[in-house]
# Entry
Amino acid sequence: MTTLTSADSATAPEAPVGPPASGRRRGRSGVWRAFLSNRKANVGFGMFFVLLVMAVFPSLFTSVSDPTAPGKFMPRLTPSGGHLFGTTSLGQDIWALFVYGAREPLIIAVVAGGLATIVSVLVGVSAAYLGGIPDDIISFVTNVVLVIPTFPLVIVLSAYAGKPTLTIMIAVLVVTGWSYGANQMRAQALSLRNRDFLESARVRGERRSYIIVFEMLPTMISLIIANFLGAALYSVLAAAGLQFLGLGDPNSDSWGTMLYWADSQSALESGTAWWAILPAIGIAVLGVAFALMNYAFDEISNPALRPVRRQRGKKLASRLRPASAPASAIAGGGGRK
Amino acid sequence: MRYLLRRVGFFLLTLWAALTLNFFLPHFMPGSPINTLRAQTKGRVSDAQLEQILTSFGYKPHENIFEQYIHYFGNMLTGNWGVSLGSSLGTPVSKLIGQALPWTLGLVGFTTVLAFLLGSLIGTIAAWRRGGIVDSVLPSVFVITSALPYFVVGLFLILFMTIDNTWLPSSGNYDTSIVPGFSPGFVGSIVKYAALPALTLLITSIGGWVLTMRNNMITTLAEDYIRMGRAKGLSDRKVMLNYAARNAFLPNLSGFAMSIGFVLTGAILVEKIFNYPGLGYQLYNAVNSIDYPMMQTLFMLFTVAVLGALLICDLVTVWLDPRTRAKG
# Structure
């Protein structure tokens, strides 16, 4: 059965993505191995890991424990041994603000990205599996949510709801962020629907839920991961944008909030430029980390995209490659922001 | 034809859904708009007047909600958008939008189309010269630039350009010391003031187009009809543009329509950073001063913009791709 499956999904023209199709259980570790040997993935994961350590153990990086408390130090100190990047005009240590500010973006990325992905999978797979009129309705709703301009909606929502707490912000990001992935999940699940290995499970008399969870989802794992990375990237950027506009909790310690304060206190002009530069770098690094890992997954699921080293290899590869539209390739770009 | 009709149907249904959402949002949110407004106007406007202002965007506490809904719909569609409740209290929303629209269209519209076309071209070339210098360096570079937030790029541009060298202005839309008109000085100052925001938008948006176009091209280049084109002895340029790029461009095109929503995000952030008085800046102001009519109108217009772009891209797709015509 394993051989049948692999041969099947390797040649099926409508299979856009999917692990190297070497059976389901081995497929997962195959994705993992491919991830480890991809340079972009390694760089991206390394960047993410450094930020993660900083967020989990901030006391390793700074001795200040309550960075947002104003007036703790002299305002507008220039960088020195005591204050690596100086202090803000409100008398806070900039480096400590930056270190503790890593937490919120990371939480938002993982939680909002994760929840949005779960919703995408649920909606997309059930649309594909139900088919018919339920599918039409679900697809229509997905497309409407997809088309409605998200960020303006988020802005308007947070204006109506007042300054949002972290929970509300995550909820808003999930509500607006699931539709893109749901479309892709649906397409992928549709292409899997009539595959032999699912048919054989049906013939075996397995329950629907079993088939979806244990037969279907594992083959979609690389698309799901790519989706999570994209959703996490979107959440980080959108949340930081909201906070920068002053639509977050102004007392929270987060890179976006830092930028908001830096902007409203004209940090660039008043000699505390690091106040704005550090969080900007932080958000950029986190965003780039997710984008690199996301693109790495595109390369893993569509080997044609991998960097070519030698001319001969390229020509050979281009001849052997099955012709298929890389759905996840579209996911990777398209200005997801 | 059937394809287009379906798309128009989708357009209308989505517009209806967005307008409905827009109508019900203030109703479901905590707090009554009239209280917010009373605080906002600090007693300068009487309650009766406040209510009258609110009616223009569908708030009539004494009226049945369905009647409110119908009225709101009529008002939105006929351009009867009420008056602003923000800093320019009492000015018709349509007038304020009329003032801001050209700036956004000029800056954001132009930059977006430029980024799209330029990015697609670079992507085409990168995929065509697979393994060349362009192709080995650019993907990584563009993955990075496409993940950079607008305000980060804007911030660094401001930092490098204006603080150190005062090359380019970083705030406003034109030099106010010049009398507006079609003089070279005025046009020059518009271009100068637009340079930094445009560059910000370009840097952040071009990467996505390069990458998707490159990836589509790579897939397309493996198709049999490409080999066929070569076998016929067509020139490289013809195979690249008419055979490969034309097909690889199609997914990009639908991506373009979808990206208008993201472009609006960029417009809001970039216009805020550079104090550029376009629609995005106006939304920012409207949100800060809880200007309900302005917010509702802008949100409706943004949705219409995305839907309009979708429809245009559908038309172009029908023109580029004979298969969609055959289906109908």
Q: What stands out?
A: Confidence is low (pLDDT under 50) at residues 1-26, 310-337 of chain A.
